[in-house]
Design brief:
The protein is α+β, with helices and mostly antiparallel strands. It contains four helices and two strands, in the order αααββα. 51% of the residues lie in helices and 16% in strands. The model has no long low-confidence stretch (mean pLDDT 92).
């Protein structure tokens, strides 16, 4: 991750930890003022690491929620 992306990552991590269950990538991008592709890349990594869980779909949109591991982790995970 580049240094310029650190602020974006911090904003996305705050969103993930505070958003209610059932948010989509487009909502995350809109609320954090980042690109859809940046959110998609980060959320895919967080899915593999167990910080985010997919909870369903709304049409073609996948819906996510933060896991208990994310609730226990106040700092942005740095193992990208």
């Amino acid at each position: 991750m580049r240094y310029a992306d650190a602020d974006k990552m911090a904003a996305l991590w705050r969103f993930i930890r505070t958003a209610k269950s059932g948010w989509s990538l487009s909502q995350a991008a809109l609320m954090t003022k980042t690109s859809y592709s940046f959110c998609r890349t980060c959320v895919e990594v967080f899915l593999k690491q167990g910080f985010v869980v997919q909870v369903g779909q709304n049409g073609k949109k996948r819906l996510y929620k933060s896991s208990a591991l994310a609730a226990k982790t106040p700092e942005v995970p740095r193992n990208f």
